[in-house]
Amino acid sequence: GQNIDQPTEMTATEGAIVQINCTYQTSGFNGLFWYQQHAGEAPTFLSYNVLDGLEEKGRFSSFLSRSKGYSYLLLKELQMKDSASYLCAVLNAGNNRKLIWGLGTSLAVNP
Amino acid sequence: KAGVTQTPRYLIKTRGQQVTLSCSPISGHRSVSWYQQTPGQGLQFLFEYFSETQRNKGNFPGRFSGRQFSNSRSEMNVSTLELGDSALYLCASGTGTGGMGTEAFFGQGTRLTVV
What we know:
Structural class of chain A: mainly beta
Strand content of chain A: over 45%
Helix content of chain B: under 10%
Order of helices and strands of chain B: EEEEEEEEEEE
Radius of gyration of chain B: 13 Å
Number of helices of chain B: 0
Distance between the termini of chain A: 40 Å
Number of strands of chain B: 11
Helix content of chain A: under 10%
Strand content of chain B: over 45%
Structural class of chain B: mainly beta
Shape of chain B: globular
Shape of chain A: globular
Distance between the termini of chain B: 37 Å
Largest interface: A-B, 22 and 23 residues
Oligomer: heterodimer
Largest sheet of chain A: 6 strands, mixed
Largest sheet of chain B: 7 strands, mixed
């Protein structure tokens, strides 16, 4: 089967750094996405990785290792507004190509 | 540029009824995907449409159906509603073909409650 695993919950302190891991097993691979979803709102796009390595975008960075089926989202200089659910999704391959989603990691940022 | 618009935002229906949800994608986007989101199951893929054709379908019963119009607007229909259909239904639009391309833009969702 196809599955995406990420921790259910994480807690961090304002100003700190947090790393949210994601491991995946899918039928083929066409890219990995990270989305942020605040309670009661729509998911919003954070990052996309299709090649191995680190993609940096401001306070957020995302890393991918295709050989290990592994990604992480790194959030630096945490702010209270970063408290949200972070969703990892993989675009699989083949004729039935679609996004496979993890259940999300609920991050609580404390003062 | 307007975002993805879903209507209605909230809906309460009775078991056995049917419901139609609407999604207007971002102008120029031809791909529309529908998802069901529940706390226990996360985001579950329902189906994807591109240029009025269903390109992909998830593992949902036949009570769930959809369509896409020539202006790329999409509707999904759920017949014979069950309590377990209570969820947030999200629509996402993109430019990709046979997939969501490199980014999917989500609407605010329709919160459906079945009583």
